[in-house]
Amino acid sequence: MAAMTLSFSxxxxxxxxxxxxxxxxxxxxxxxxxxPLAASNTTANYYLGLAELGLGNTNEAKAIFTKYPEDxxxxxxxxxxxxxxxxxAEGTRLAQVVAxxxxxxxxxxxxxxxxxxxxxxxxxxxxxxxxxxxxxxRNDNPDIRIALGDAYLKLPDNSGGGKAxxxxxxxxxxxxxxxxxxxxxxxxxxxxxxxxxxxxxxQKAKDADPSNPLPYRDLANAYFWxxxxxxxxxxxxxxxxxxxxxxxxxxNYGNILYLSKDYEGAIKVMQDLLGKGIAKPGMYGILGFxxxxxxxxxxxxxxxxxxxxxxxxxxxxxxxxxxFGKIAMANELSDSAEYYLNQAVAQDTATNKSExxxxxxxxxxxxxxxxxxxxxYEKLVTAYPETQPLDYxxxxxxxxxxxxxxxxxxxxxxxxxxxxxxxxxxxxxxRVAAAQDDEGKTGLAVPHYEKWLDTVGYDYEKTSDLMxxxxxxxxxxxxxxxxxxxxxxxxxxxxxxPQNSFLKQLKxxxxxxxxxxxx
Length: 519
Known about the structure:
- The protein has 519 residues and is an all-alpha fold.
- Among the domains are: 350-421, Tetratricopeptide repeat domain (Serine Threonine Protein Phosphatase 5, Tetratricopeptide repeat, Alpha Horseshoe), CATH 1.25.40.10; 436-512.
- The chain contains 29 helices and no strands.
- It has helices at 2-23, 27-38, 42-54, 58-65, 72-84, 88-100, 108-118, 125-138, 142-153, 161-174, 179-191, 195-208, 214-225, 229-242, 247-259, 263-275, 281-293, 297-310, 318-330, 334-347, 354-366, 370-383, 389-401, 405-418, 423-436, 446-456, 463-479, 483-496, 501-513.
- Helix 24 packs antiparallel against helix 25 (423-436).
- The radius of gyration is 34 Å and the shape is elongated.
């Protein structure tokens, strides 16, 4: 009898562990714990089927649930399979049959039936809520309250958020060690953009059960969507320590590594997965984009082509087209680059596409195709005249470096008109004009440089900019025989760089032209 009692205790503990692993979305661990029990325990069989569904194995789950076709839980599992298989009529029918098994006093069949609707798509959410509420009247159970909160969150137009919060908080009020409920509360506060309360509740979830990986995953996602990729990386790595390290987990990890600019790490994660025979479309994208950043352009091109060939076209984003364009550009495939970059703009449904234009322009800038970069910056400022001054600057600067001086002059004039408080526009009008008058004979740059100097002063911190202006002005005034101003700017040059080569040459020329004194 003692041996039998011990055996039952071990079995119960293993079942509890398996269910806990399922709730923590550790589906492989749940399978390992539940498989030995499923042959003789309908509850273990039910959660084993749910674990298979969690792993995306619909056929395997169906076969497991079918072993106990009259059991309420396993019949609810078959209802889930029907919903997942896009057969909502059959799912609804089975859920109703399960709910009817509760009779006038039972509560578990009601929860099983409601769960089948809540955690799939296609069912009547309001019906699920009614079943949960009836079950709660018969047995006030924290699992029901958490599921009820989840059902409220599935209502259209986010209308159930407040009731969901109340449901979760009712659990933590009675059970301050309920890690799942705190995780849900944290997610709700995060969705409401109340980040301090979100972080507070994620911390409570971690404290309540340090083995719960979900708060770390949620924190990683939260930091990911707010662009804090280093913090996302820290939390996803902690999540991986506690989770089953599923392929999806590792793909998400690789994506965060890429966005946190750990390109070598992202490459290793993707290559390790491919080496294990796991090959999902998104992996090729992460791999190719990371290889581009490490300047492994041929392999980047090969993998991004694989990504586009395997990925559902509906899932491709403007960012994907943009990256493909950059990679094609790096491999000197100009026609392909133009095609994919134009597709990036066409696919961008945002009201303001300035960031897409900017990314394309920066891509051409990186590849030193300054003329093309200037074209895209011009498209940006033409489409969005109220854009930042820096876009106007790069429009002009790219034309300048491409030696398209007339176009550069037009760009910097537009910048100075649009942003008169930006002295750099005036300075660069001087630079462009000086490039057009490189012998300092027409004085084309003089009004711009002198206006700029009047604005920033002769003690301007960027001495390299001062030197361009001083040298041109000294040369121009030398050419126009204005010795006073020539000396003024030569002295300015000498104060910054006494051994300046231009200054030495000009001094030598002036010395040779000086007439010998008469006796």
